[in-house]
Automatic annotation (TrEMBL):
Region (Disordered): 140-175
Naturally occurring in which organism (per UniProt): Vitis rotundifolia
Lineage, top ranks: Eukaryota, Viridiplantae, Streptophyta, Embryophyta, Tracheophyta
Official protein name in the record: non-specific serine/threonine protein kinase
Main location: membrane
PANTHER family: LEUCINE RICH REPEAT KINASE 2 (PTHR48005), PROTEIN STRUBBELIG-RECEPTOR FAMILY 5-LIKE (PTHR48005:SF32)
Length: 585
């Protein structure tokens, strides 16, 4: 399908059994579809010479047979996804003429013999292993002109970075390195210096959890970079100090405080530390907005700007003079009181790194004067809840195929949180009002990343959505998320609310009413949303109900993993697409 002048987004759901996919030389826009992650037999992928933009999702972990990938001549940006490192058969990779940033260390262990990364915005050094491949083009980037640091002791020599200047064409290049004696000398010298620092600062506080650490600092192959308990502010350049208590190296604990070494820091260093603002490294990947700016855009958070209110806080519409519109979630201050384990910077650091086509991504944040807020893209079509339950007679109802597509996209988002994020992320508040719809009615899951906040509240987090085992906030698990998603699917199928006190008592709880009827085709026809006016394939409806029945089982262990749900819904869509010619479902 190359060179056909095709435009718009690449189809969301691509056939999972494809071996050779060539969409190059068209006018495709948007991002690379996440359904590529399901093409486990894919050997050839060419999306070059299009107008693709944005960051690549971390979706390449299950493509062991891929040998060639060409994403060149697009507008792709951001760091290379870590799942690139799983492309164990990749021999040809063309990324030239994009806007990629960061290091290329993730490519160091791939079996490449043809690599073109020209004309991007890569930084750092090129790993020595990549100098040994047959063909490499790396010019037009911002490679460091300084001498590359040696690898950490014990690291594979093939991962050693080599220094290059920005004018380097990318061909050949020196293979300078350090001898074993030189490396040993550096290590011993570093250890001696760290022993002295340990003695001087032995009374400092314990180190933060590992997820506070700067990811880029840990990935650049720097020599013996200690994991520190606290970092002094960056305005100390060019002379900066790091306060060290517990040193970790290559995942192992190193030097410990000795009870016999009770020395106090010299007064000069102690005074220096007291004058500086000590802070944890959070590596936030979102734009900081000022409180004054948000007050102006929301008309001082006026009631007329209120979009909705959830368990975490209220959401306001922010309109700017240039036409930009954002959704601003103003989080209740009680969630981030002093002394609590997880603060707002840690939440922002965590959620700002998530990238998925069906996730409502964080675009900004604000933390001033006790106000904690997150900014999201504004979706003019509102939420799935509004489409299902608040539409008037003049609104066009969601077709059956659109409903299944929304269910699949939401399932992919939850699968990403559960099975791609590390550690897995429990959403804990999956409901139709947290599924936002864009102009093409693609779903975007929101309100993720607040499980720790919900952990501290006894508030009922969604009447009708809670799994039976969730009698308290701390009881939520990945499988309780699966149950909540099953309830959403029931909403999609029936058009009913999860709990509706206006109905007869036996029908108020949607799951309790629907579950006994999910395996009877005659009952299903009576349960299906009347707004569909009978326009749905009976076989597709029956299989959709079977997936629901698995998700809403009483016992958590009997519920499927989200990856299984995704596969079942994907097969359902493939079957439905073959029947679209007969009806406008």
């Amino acid at each position: 399908m190359s060179k056909n002048n095709l435009k718009g987004d690449i189809p969301y759901q691509l056939p999972p059994n494809v071996l050779h996919l060539d969409l190059s030389g068209n006018g495709f826009t948007g991002g690379a579809p996440y359904s590529i992650s399901q093409m486990t037999d894919l050997k050839y992928l060419n999306l070059g010479h299009n107008k693709l933009n944005g960051q690549l999702s971390d979706m390449f972990g299950q493509l062991p047979k891929l040998t060639l990938m060409d994403l060149s001549f697009n507008r792709l940006s951001g760091n290379l996804p870590q799942s690139f490192g799983s492309l164990s058969s990749l021999t040809t990779l063309h990324l030239q003429n994009n806007q990629f940033t960061g290091s290329i260390n993730v490519l160091a262990d791939l079996p490449l013999n043809d690599l073109n990364i020209e004309n991007n915005q890569f930084t750092g050094w090129i790993p020595n292993a990549l100098n040994n491949i047959d063909n490499i083009e790396a010019g037009g980037n911002s490679w460091s002109s300084e001498r590359a640091p040696p690898p950490p002791p014990g690291a594979s020599s093939k991962n050693t970075n080599t220094s290059r200047s920005s004018s380097n064409s990318g061909k050949g290049g020196g293979k300078s390195g350090m001898s074993g004696l030189a490396i040993a000398g550096v290590v011993l010298g570093s250890l001696l210096a760290l022993v002295i620092l340990l003695v001087l600062f032995s009374r400092r506080s314990s180190p933060p959890p590992s997820h506070f650490l700067d990811e880029e600092r840990l990935s650049n192959h720097r020599p013996f970079t200690p994991i520190v308990s606290q970092e002094l502010s960056n305005d100390m350049h060019p002379t900066s100090y790091k306060v060290v208590e517990l040193i970790q190296f290559n995942g192992c604990k190193g030097l410990q405080k000795s009870p016999s070494m009770g020395l106090k820091p010299p007064p000069s260093l102690n005074d220096l530390a007291n004058r500086l603002s000590v802070k944890r490294s959070t590596s936030i990947r979102a734009t900081a907005y000022s409180l004054a700016d948000l007050q102006s855009a929301t008309r001082n958070f006026a009631t007329a700007s209120l979009l909705g209110e959830g368990s975490v806080g209220r959401v306001y519409k922010a309109k700017y003079a240039d036409g930009k519109v954002l959704a601003v979630k103003k989080i209740s201050s009680s969630f981030f009181q002093s002394g609590q384990k997880q603060g707002f910077p840690e939440v922002v650091s965590s959620v700002s790194k998530l990238r998925h086509p069906n996730i409502a991504e964080i675009v900004g944040y604000c933390s001033e004067q006790g106000h904690n807020m997150l900014m999201y893209e504004y979706f003019r079509n509102g939420s799935l809840h509004q489409f299902l339950h608040l539409s008037d007679d003049f609104s066009r109802p969601l077709t059956w195929n659109t409903r299944v597509k929304i269910a699949l996209g939401t399932a992919r988002a939850i699968e990403y949180l559960h099975e791609v994020c590390s550690p897995p992320m429990v959403h804990k508040n999956i409901k139709s009002s947290n599924i936002l719809l864009d102009a093409e009615l693609n779903p975007h899951l929101s309100d993720y990343g607040f499980a720790a906040c919900h952990q501290r509240t006894s508030q009922n987090l969604g009447v009708g959505y809670n799994a039976p085992e969730c009698t308290k906030p701390s009881a939520y698990t990945l499988k309780s998320d699966v149950y909540s998603f099953g309830v959403v699917m029931l909403e999609v199928m029936t058009g009913r609310m999860p709990f509706d006190s206006s109905r007869p008592r036996s029908e108020q709880c949607l799951v309790r009413w629907a579950t006994p009827q999910l395996h009877e085709i005659d009952s299903l026809e009576q349960m299906v949303d009347p707004a569909l006016r009978g326009l749905y394939p009976p076989k597709s409806l029956s299989r959709f109900a079977e997936i629901i029945a698995l998700c809403v089982q009483m016992e958590p262990d009997f519920r499927p993993a989200m990856s299984e749900v995704v596969q079942s819904l994907a097969r359902l869509i493939q079957g439905a697409s073959r029947r679209m010619e007969d009806f406008n479902y």
